[in-house]
């Protein structure tokens, strides 16, 4: 771990903090592994694990800022090497495996055999009902599939080891789910006229879900999640694409509707989306709680950011969105659902 020669105190302190952060992450990984096997899990078992991972990445960024020579090889998670030591890949593999276990769907969850195609089909149908042409409706499908990967890594009906409120394929709370159901009911006739087969599928899923929490039926969870907040922005997709031609940036913007809805809508209304600045400490806290400006002292010290800076700081989402785009291309080619 040591550099040749004598380390300056700042460099030595950064190295000590990183070693401590790695040890803490390993310790909490071990605790959760043992608890899953032998003991009841604590409330919100994923939160301490998430913070420990962030702590390790933050300490590594501080270390590479102090010792640029410590920036190593690329890693399989596509995390910028200045933020993550590729030698620690096994720790993130275990982190992901533990979250898969802690976020597992409840036994009565109603899965779909075509979860990815469902997202795309619902988004396109909703977009067409909102008046979008074929090209922009397809963009709505692509964006929505990206949000599914952002929220759950493309896994349906999951719980949430970091929250007792947000659940299901689109990670909505009870009030958001109810709001989406009401908005869907208002456009159901238009959907039926545009796509009778999809409307019939919806009727079957409604009958199937019965009194179960709609968030644990994949179809209704996606439908209501999209209707809750995103469908109202679908008519702006053409204008958004002019400002953000990169498809991944488009998905990031819609994901920000999940994370910081009010500022994102204000930015869209401002007429200068990319230069719109967020400075409210609460909003900056929401961003950090979603791995944006969360790593390293320099980023965590930020008191404001433009939307261009926010989009650029969402690099931890990039790998998920790349996989979502690849899956979308497969669906459009008729290969997978």
Furnish the topology, listing elements before pairings.
Layout: H1 9-38, H2 45-66, H3 89-102, H4 115-129, H5 134-152, H6 174-194, H7 196-209, H8 218-230, H9 237-243, H10 247-259, H11 261-270, E1 277-278, H12 281-288, H13 297-300, E2 305-306, H14 307-313, H15 318-332
Antiparallel strand pairs: 1-2
Task: Please explain how this structure is put together.
Helix 2 runs antiparallel to helix 3. The protein has 337 residues and is mainly alpha-helical. The protein has helices spanning 9-38, 45-66, 89-102, 115-129, 134-152, 174-194, 196-209, 218-230, 237-243, 247-259, 261-270, 281-288, 297-300, 307-313, 318-332; strands at residues 277-278, 305-306. It has a two-stranded antiparallel sheet. It is globular, with a radius of gyration of 21 Å.
List keywords for this structure.
single chain, 337 residues, mainly alpha, two-stranded antiparallel ribbon, 15 helices, 2 strands, 63% helix, globular
Element order, helices and strands? HHHHHHHHHHHEHHEHH
In round numbers, the mean pLDDT is 95
Strand order of the largest sheet: 1-2
| Share of helical residues | 55-70%
Q: Span between N and C termini?
A: 46 Å
Proportion of strand residues: under 5%
Regions with pLDDT < 50 over 5+ consecutive residues? Answer: none
Global morphology? globular
Calculate Rg over CA atoms: 21 Å
- Give a short account of the largest sheet: 2 strands, antiparallel
The strand count comes to: 2
**Helix vs. strand class:** mainly alpha
Number of helices: 15
